[in-house]
């Protein structure tokens, strides 16, 4: 999977917006100003940082050598996944969906309802 393919998947979510974080050379994907993905290169490899529960983040890191705590984000919740590694694309898409759902859960009910209309 490439950064472009993942970015396209992220941007297909309702309300998705992107912004460039120039200091980190990363594209942040947000819904209503809540970030749910950060697409970037890490050590010259395509990668994405996603939010997950601390328990899921720990499990992913234990089971996959291509999942690491995110360098610039809360390490308990955010993990960086290499897109060119051993994680199947289907699992990466699932984790993007889960991160998006977590972002939605932080939004006011009215905003969530507007996004689902």
From TrEMBL:
Organism: Buttiauxella agrestis ATCC 33320
Protein name: YjbR family protein
One Pfam assignment: YjbR
Gene behind this protein: yjbR
Signal peptide limits: none
Entry-linked PANTHER family: CYTOPLASMIC PROTEIN, CYTOPLASMIC PROTEIN-RELATED
InterPro entries reported for this sequence: YjbR, YjbR-like_sf, YjbR/MT2646/Rv2570-like
Gene3D superfamilies the UniProt entry points to: 3.90.1150.30
């Amino acid at each position: 999977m490439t950064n472009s393919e993942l970015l396209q998947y992220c941007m297909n979510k309702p309300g998705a917006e992107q912004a460039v974080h120039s200091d980190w050379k990363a594209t942040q994907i947000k819904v209503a100003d809540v970030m749910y993905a950060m697409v970037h290169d890490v050590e010259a490899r395509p990668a994405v940082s996603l939010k997950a529960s601390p328990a899921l983040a720990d499990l992913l890191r234990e089971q996959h050598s291509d999942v690491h705590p995110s360098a610039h984000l809360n390490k308990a919740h955010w993990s960086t996944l290499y897109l060119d590694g051993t994680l199947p694309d289907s699992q990466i898409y699932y984790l993007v969906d889960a991160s998006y759902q977590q972002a939605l859960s932080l939004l006011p009910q009215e905003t969530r309802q507007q996004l689902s209309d």
